């Protein structure tokens, strides 16, 4: 475990000795909207899909920038780039979210990408919950990372 010291206490990892390298990470999440909650993307929308996705995109990017404020013991990083993209699967009534983050630092940006994907998914839930409380957020995961001592994953 990376945030446990020799005495077993929670601690922030000391990354001061690590080389500053370009770090990138991509995370994903799925929002299972269900046929009722898909209303924002139908011919008679409650909300325009651009509105929902635009708000979720901004929320995800802002969350990536504020990850250290949200996740205890996470290093504050100067993010050089963050993005959130969406792919609607109308047949499956689901929305796939892909979030990426990058920076030059001595530690990775996996948590920033994961936070962006999760907050974007929660924002979609919040904006569509009036149509269905049965929306499911799932498959939050790291898709890939690069940079640093561990290299590519």
From TrEMBL:
Statement: the UniProt record of this protein carries the keyword Lyase: yes
Pathways per UniProt: Cofactor biosynthesis; molybdopterin biosynthesis
EC number(s) from the headed UniProt entry: 4.6.1.17
Claim: Lyase is one of the keywords in the record: yes
Enzymatic reactions: (8S)-3',8-cyclo-7,8-dihydroguanosine 5'-triphosphate = cyclic pyranopterin phosphate + diphosphate
Any GO BP: Mo-molybdopterin cofactor biosynthetic process
A molecular-function term among this protein's GO annotations: cyclic pyranopterin monophosphate synthase activity
Segments traversing the membrane: none
Class in the EC hierarchy, top level: lyase
Entry-linked Pfam families: MoaC
Chain ranges of the Molybdopterin cofactor biosynthesis C (MoaC) domain: 12-148
Keyword annotations of the record: Lyase, Molybdenum cofactor biosynthesis
Stored InterPro entries: MoaC, MoaC_bact/euk, MoaC_sf, MoCo_biosynth_MoaA/MoaC, Mopterin_CF_biosynth-C_dom
NCBIfam families: moaC (TIGR00581), PRK09364.1 (NF006870)
UniProt-recorded name of the protein: cyclic pyranopterin monophosphate synthase
